[in-house]
Amino acid sequence: MTTTDPHTLTGAYALHALPDDERAAFERHLAGCADCEREVAEFTATAARLASASGMAARPALREQVLHRITTVRQAPPGPAAVDQARRRVPRLGGPLRWALAACAAAAAAFGGTAVWQYERAQEAHRQTAEAERHADEVAGVLAAPDARTRSAQLAGGTGTLVVSTARGRAVFVASGLAEPPRGKVYELWFADGGRMRPAGLLKPDRASQAVLMRGPVEHASGVGITVEPAGGSPRPTTEPVGLLDIPS
């Protein structure tokens, strides 16, 4: 059980960086702490701004100017007189001050590392969100296509519906009420294509109902199968299908 002060976890929570047990404990704390709720909202907004930040491209002539200066400007090393003068101008630091400056430098380095880590996490969250939105758009495009055709069958304790758009050349598999696969296993989709089974994606094992855009084009596939495979999927079926559906015409 963690003993970390929950008030220090707002940033990590906003970036989805807490382990499951700490996240659950923090959410219980968050329900009754207005200060932490406000900080989480501010961190979340900041992460979103960082994720959408973009750099400004340098002027094309700037590179040539820099390269030209490198060849014409040479920094001479300081002579002995300059070094002695600099030493006289810099006061010797006492013990406490020296340690204070060292602590400040360490804190600045740690803060900089944290900022980079937070930026990278924000970028990853932005990428995952964009990918999820793109997937949802593609699924919706197939389901709403004017030429969409469907075929349904009972399988794995629930219902599987295949939706195919010939114009788009894509298919969506809609699962409803499927039984959870055995621990460490997943349902894998396949296209029956020219006498071979072509991998076409995985269903999320913790969701009884979901819509999956099948991987790859429909092309000349005659049907779709679903099998139970090890987590991560298999390059070819290792079990008998729990369901088979013909491609709707």
From TrEMBL:
Q: Where is the Anti-sigma K factor RskA C-terminal domain?
A: 101-242
Superkingdom of source: Bacteria
Please tell me where this protein is predominantly located: membrane
Q: Which Pfam families match?
A: RskA_C, RskA_N
Using the record's annotation, list all stretches that form the Anti-sigma-K factor RskA N-terminal domain. 8-39
Q: How does it sit in the membrane?
A: Single-pass membrane protein
- Subcellular localization(s) per the UniProt record: Cell membrane; Membrane
UniProt keyword terms in alphabetical order:
Cell membrane, Membrane, Transcription, Transcription regulation, Transmembrane, Transmembrane helix
The coiled-coil segments of this chain are none
Disordered: annotated segments:
230-249
Protein name per the record: Regulator of SigK
Give the source species: Streptomyces andamanensis
Q: What is the lineage of its organism?
A: Bacteria, Bacillati, Actinomycetota, Actinomycetes, Kitasatosporales
